[in-house]
Amino acid sequence: MAEKKLVEAITSMDEDFAQWYTDVVKKAELIEYTSVKGCMAIKPYGYAIWELIQKQLDERFKETGVENVYMPMFIPESLLQKEKDHVEGFAPEVAWVTHGGLTELQERLCVRPTSETLFCDFYKNDIHSYRDLPKVYNQWCSVVRWEKETRPFLRSREFLWQEGHTAHATMEEAEERTIQMLNLYADFCEQVLAIPVIKGKKTDKEKFAGAEATYTIEALMHDGKALQSGTSHNFGDGFAKAFGIQFTDKDNKLKYVYQTSWGMTTRLIGAIIMVHGDNSGLVLPPRVAPVQIMIIPIQQKKEGVLEMAYALRDRLGGFRVKVDDTDKSPGWKFSEQEMRGIPIRVEIGPKDIEAGRCVICRRDTHEKIEVRLEDLEEKADEILEQMQSDMLERARAHRDAHTHVATNMAELEDILNNEPGFVKAMWCGDQACEDQIKEKFAATSRCMPFEQEHLSDTCVCCGKPAKKMVYWGRAY
Amino acid sequence: MAEKKLVEAITSMDEDFAQWYTDVVKKAELIEYTSVKGCMAIKPYGYAIWELIQKQLDERFKETGVENVYMPMFIPESLLQKEKDHVEGFAPEVAWVTHGGLTELQERLCVRPTSETLFCDFYKNDIHSYRDLPKVYNQWCSVVRWEKETRPFLRSREFLWQEGHTAHATMEEAEERTIQMLNLYADFCEQVLAIPVIKGKKTDKEKFAGAEATYTIEALMHDGKALQSGTSHNFGDGFAKAFGIQFTDKDNKLKYVYQTSWGMTTRLIGAIIMVHGDNSGLVLPPRVAPVQIMIIPIQQKKEGVLEMAYALRDRLGGFRVKVDDTDKSPGWKFSEQEMRGIPIRVEIGPKDIEAGRCVICRRDTHEKIEVRLEDLEEKADEILEQMQSDMLERARAHRDAHTHVATNMAELEDILNNEPGFVKAMWCGDQACEDQIKEKFAATSRCMPFEQEHLSDTCVCCGKPAKKMVYWGRAY
């Protein structure tokens, strides 16, 4: 009865995907809504996922020479205005501080929506000579964007992220770092989050405010909508000129630096939910699961059962493991473990103990595997590894099955309306066509993928000669 | 010549301690000032110290069952006002957000100066039954207090910290957690930062706005001024009543929860500087040194020298170790290593290699120790351990030598004006005496230490019967 209620509380994903998402976010205890409109509280289980993301991403950053720093959370209005495109892009969506204590400020401060301007202001004083380059800095912090429509993890007024900001002596080096970080992001998504991504370049319409080029990784959610999962920007020397960031090069000439920035956010948790989740709740890839193994004793009041559960936990100490020894029924515990997406559960009862075995149940496939107790560590390790790679392959197969080709507007419309997913189509390079597709179908150009294909000779929209293949889609 | 310049750039600490502090903070490349008044940029070296503090403190938290979460950075004005004492304490020093994008907000939001109100608002909805207790949550974030006078690390408008917020079924359990965290802080300061602290309770005048009791750890800086280094508050059920946080207890009755909060900040970096630093710059305790060992090759252009330096670095892989292979002179490198407080340097040149030895120089004592190359790892480990404990003992001896006793106002005045340090003196418990001492001598009651002594029968100020021994001092 109780178990039924827990499971029934989730809307089916085929019935109402948005409601399913909200249900999972709440029932898996990832977040709670707050009295602060558009801002969420990240609960321990949700935050533990973020900590695992942070730790593994930060390690990868540091291997490439990234150093962490911390800049102020406020940007004086005059500083935000220094780069024209940048301020136009961000000013409409920032929060403004006008008073400090009881006093009105002489100059308004915005709460950082992103920190290019602060890093530029810092680099201007910190960089003098080619010996000071490159600067490869990153910060982990929260940023604020005054969004009207918000959804947990996907779009909120405040969110957590990392933002890397680098300065280089040459354009080539900046471009190299931009692509290096994009590749690092793509690799992280695939290897750690089990989410396959398309790597590509944004069109001018979709690029970051102030960037010369924006690169992106795009993932496909279970409902066929796209999610921009990380971006890496090459600024050329645009910001450097606006802020006056110059250095004396080896040839003794004064030159402007070339800059990049790149970021990933708590959005990734939304991506994990929407790529891997099912009608029983969350499904976490083992590498970001705060608990990888939940041991659930059966008939735990019988002598020796709990003791064995604890003994197995101790033997599995190399994993993130817990015993559910609460006084709930095993069925209820199964439902909770499934809702929270814990990769494997180990069922152990009196009969199992007698037979010297236990049952491992995989969260992604619901497969039950009998395991001899002496093989437990080895089997658990094997199953977690298998699950991690199966999840990636399943997500890749889903994405490939939901990637279509259109060569004209009728096909594009038909696919977008009937077969959710990515649509690959050729484009002339003219923003008018992008605008038209967005207006007609509410779909945007996701990226011009690095792996270009020749699908047809003409633009899907206007019929003029095509220049690029583009991934199109409706997006979060 | 160049070396000389680097060293000369620091003011002597005996000449002008405040200027010495500022010089060290800048020359050791811990921070940079920014265009945002009162806010600093924490540079890679400063941030790396903070990361080491975070990591070790967070591990200790988690061992006691703490779970990390993240609450919004904004507090609606109506929420801040719910607890009377709390709003009175904080409203005069918060930053107010009045506009989101182009729109004026219906209700002002302050940037969190601390998050009691947000946690209360969260707990009100999250706690229903005794089964939901205790809640032992913490968050790592930045907070804002609109200070007029600011100094790097010690007092800035934005600073980084952790804030723990817990909820319990009983007052006893809340008190136990309050003291547990204070002890954890004290132990962390001594074992990791090599800073001895006095543990005690704040007087009512000095306690946190809204707290029933505030406990503190107080450290003594090299100049004899005190620094409050961590606090732990017991709120009783005051906030619970103001916010309506109730739970159904085992006896089926509705009860208010009991709460605590506790925090430590980037101030600790200021404490490290002012407790351990000397006229050559920073001195870092090995456990929070981003680089523990700097290998400095002598005559590095001679064949085999750099190769040996790298080989030693690889052998010292268990430590945080670097080779300074820049083209600066060894003397310059020594100065930089000293300025940055790197605990030990290893000097290795052609003659050393020939003799199968190197020289280890301890940053704290400047002692030079000849070490046979085959003993290097073992010796380095031994010296770092020794240095860590010597630094603590030296700081303790300094504090003890600068702790005095006063039994009347004349003595108190004499000591405060002539012998910087803590003054132990008896107190009647009346706030009027605290006010008078503050007004006359600019000294405050630091705490009523747990280890009470009987120094005299009467209050140092008014001569009435004494109730408590208090540590007094001028403080940062």
TrEMBL record, chains A, B:
Would I find Ribonucleoprotein among this entry's keywords?
A: no
Q: Report the EC code(s) recorded for this entry.
A: 6.1.1.15
Kindly list the GO molecular function terms attached to this UniProt entry.
ATP binding; catalytic activity, acting on a protein; proline-tRNA ligase activity; transferase activity
Any one annotated GO CC term:
aminoacyl-tRNA synthetase multienzyme complex
Per the record, the domain of life is Bacteria
Q: What is the first-listed, main subcellular location in coarse terms?
A: cytoplasm
Q: Which UniProt keywords apply?
A: Aminoacyl-tRNA synthetase, ATP-binding, Coiled coil, Cytoplasm, Ligase, Nucleotide-binding, Protein biosynthesis
Entries under Gene3D superfamilies matching the protein: Anticodon-binding domain, Bira Bifunctional Protein, Domain 2, C-terminal domain of ProRS
Q: Which reaction does it catalyse?
A: tRNA(Pro) + L-proline + ATP = L-prolyl-tRNA(Pro) + AMP + diphosphate
Root EC class? ligase
Say what the protein does: Catalyzes the attachment of proline to tRNA(Pro) in a two-step reaction: proline is first activated by ATP to form Pro-AMP and then transferred to the acceptor end of tRNA(Pro).
Q: What is known of its domains?
A: Consists of three domains: the N-terminal catalytic domain, the anticodon-binding domain and the C-terminal extension.
Q: How does it assemble?
A: Homodimer.
PANTHER family, alphabetized: BIFUNCTIONAL GLUTAMATE_PROLINE--TRNA LIGASE, PROLYL-TRNA SYNTHETASE
HAMAP family (alphabetical): Pro_tRNA_synth_type3
Instruction: Give the family per the record.
Output: Belongs to the class-II aminoacyl-tRNA synthetase family. ProS type 3 subfamily.
The molecule here is called Proline--tRNA ligase
Species the sequence originates in: Candidatus Eisenbergiella merdipullorum
